[in-house]
Write a structure and sequence with these properties.
Elements lengths: L10 E7 L6 E7 L2 E5 L1 E5 L10 H6 L5 E4 H4 L3 H6 L3 H4 L6 E4 L2 H7 L25 E3 L4 E5 L4 E5 L1 H11 L3 E3 L11 H25 L8 E6 L5 H12 L5 E4 L8 H11 L6 E3 L5 H9 L4 E3 L2 H7 L2 E2 L6 E2 L17 H4 L4 H9 L3 H31 L3 H13 L5
Parallel strand pairs: 4-5, 4-14, 5-6, 10-11, 11-12, 12-13, 13-14
Antiparallel strand pairs: 1-2, 2-3, 7-8, 8-9, 15-16
The structure holds one RNA strand.
Length: 406
RNA sequence: GGUCCCGUGGUGUAGCGGUUAUCACGUCUGCCUGUCACGCAGAAGAUCGCGAGUUCGAUUCUCGUCGGGACCG
């Protein structure tokens, strides 16, 4: 068993590997607890998972929570005063923050668009004059559509924000390019992201122990869909003193596995890797196979609120089951399913105009979808440890997508 | 008994002598991947209470009628 230590508070332990592959199980040790990997990190952008209590998160075996530096930037001083995100949020477990780099794209070239992974031709960047963010060497100037004012975040600002928030794991400030960006633009953006990585690291080192525990920093790999860019940035960032790595980008579905392979072949084995923003079961499966250790995504909770429910045999739209007396998924062990509440009753709550009933629906559905993805990562973990990942993956995909492909 | 209002998709409404008859909610379909988002996109759905009249033309004006409401006796 490999056992690597960066320091006494944050280190990653590799346990078992998929034979001949990059995927592995392991444990990320953080000042606020351990994360057994592969793991799905529940997204609590503002320090809470909407409609789901911390106790409920524990109950469904969530191991860690990911919040966002962008959204908490104006509250970070206050969070620091309370002793950091884990205490302030009352999650009291491992936490991660994102740098706010994603907002570069979601307010800029990707404003108002979905990060589509399947229809490359239709992805067009938002017209520059309509963008709310402008990328410069310093960082990103943007207009906050909620506060209705101009603001700026660069690597130094992001690091100060994240160190005040005080999660156990931070992300370097990066620029996510869109699927519509050219190779040339990706070269330019990647070089900038690498310079920002260096600045992030330097600024981070000044504040990373301020709260009395070590806060880890992950460098984030970009480079779009190009092998030369992905491999070179992986090598480049590997030489820097990061505690782990974020795998970033907007991916075409069919490219994901190969891009992750390029990255993870170059990255040091003893550092954890976080695949940013993905949670479709096939994405998690390919991610785990190719060496990603942790995942986060808003989809399980957002889709739950919008009436899409995950089940072993594929996703369903709850609205189609308003007379069904079945539970959401009889293979599920979440509190919602264990309570035996029917699809019919959940559908009633979903459609209800009573705010209390709606909240109840959001809670029950969010808990279910989250548990579904958490359970998936648990099963992947078990499968890798029992040396039957391939078999598990094939069986899962066969049921979930009703196909027999590979 | 008298006077006055109101009657428009499932619901609540806008409107005007010539409109593809407005908007909201609901319904239906689809979407959602480092969350601005109980959200986004699209669709269906109305012989504008009924009858007659004025008019080239009426959902719109007039009369009657039915239904609902208010007020005065």
């Amino acid at each position: 068993m490999a056992h690597y230590k960066n320091n006494n508070q944050f280190y990653f332990e590799v346990k078992n590997k998929i034979p001949g592959k990059l995927g592995r199980t392991g444990i990320i040790h953080t000042p606020h607890g351990d994360i057994e990997t592969p793991a799905f990190i529940a997204v609590g952008t503002r320090g809470e998972v909407r409609f789901v209590s911390m106790n409920e998160l524990k109950e469904i075996q969530a191991q860690a929570m990911l919040s966002n530096g962008y959204h908490l930037r104006n509250e970070c001083e206050n969070i620091k005063k309370h002793g950091g995100l884990a205490v302030w949020s009352s999650w009291n477990g491992p936490t991660i923050t994102d740098s706010g780099g994603f907002q570069v794209m979601s307010l800029g070239s990707g404003l108002g668009k979905v990060v589509s992974m399947e229809r490359e031709q239709e992805v067009i960047n938002t017209d520059p004059k309509d963008r709310l963010a402008r990328v410069t060497e310093d960082g990103v100037y943007f207009y906050d559509p909620i506060l209705k004012k101009d603001d700026f975040i660069g690597p130094e600002e992001s690091m100060r924000i994240q160190c005040n928030i005080g999660a156990d794991i931070h992300m370097a400030f990066d620029e996510l390019t869109s699927l519509a960006d050219s190779y040339e633009y990706n070269v330019e953006a990647l070089k900038r992201t690498e310079r920002w990585a260096k600045r992030s690291l330097e600024e981070h080192q000044k504040h990373c122990d301020d709260l009395g525990y070590h806060q880890a920093l992950y460098g984030v790999l970009q480079g779009g869909r190009w092998e030369d860019l992905r491999r070179s940035t992986a090598k480049h960032l590997s030489k820097m003193d990061f505690d782990g790595y974020g795998l970033g980008g907007a991916f075409l579905k069919e490219d994901l596995g190969e891009i992750l392979r390029w990255c993870c072949e170059e990255l040091p084995e003893n550092k954890p890797r976080h695949l940013l923003g993905l949670s479709r079961p096939d994405d998690i499966l390919i991610g785990a196979e190719m060496g990603a250790d942790t995942f986060d995504c808003v989809a399980p909770t957002r889709e739950a609120r919008h009436g899409r429910i995950y089940t072993k045999y594929g996703n369903i739209r709850l609205a189609k089951y308003k007379e069904s007396l079945e539970v959401l998924d009889d293979h599920c062990d979440c509190p919602t399913c264990k309570s035996k509440i029917t699809r019919k009753e959940l559908c009633r709550l979903y459609k209800s105009h009573n705010p209390e009933e709606k909240r109840k629906y959001y809670k029950l559905a969010s808990i279910h979808n989250l548990r579904f993805i958490l359970k998936l990562t648990e099963e992947i973990r078990d499968a890798i440890n029992n040396n039957c990942f391939e078999e598990y993956k094939n069986n899962f995909l066969k049921d979930y997508y009703h196909t027999d492909k590979k």
